[in-house]
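Posting for a labmate who doesn't have an account.
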Amino acid sequence: DEAQAVENARALSGAKARDLPRMTGLYGAFGYGSRGLVWAALGAELIASQLEGEPWPLERELADAVDPARFLIRALRARQVNAAD
């Protein structure tokens, strides 16, 4: 949830993608760029395993690397998202 992350921008600027607040029931597989054809199936499998409560098909570090929240983390670190005062 970007609004909630902005409220806590200072605390989250050093966080990993998995530490960001999430909106319940919202899933997305996007942001793969030129690697979309390769990564789309893995993204779909990752979402399906999360929905079904099954073990993830990849390591946690790799899941963080393809997590769409990585863009928000990058913006927080670059201070492109303003913290609420």
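Reply:
Got it, the structure tokens are right above this. Helices lie at 2-7, 9-12, 36-52, 60-66, 70-77.
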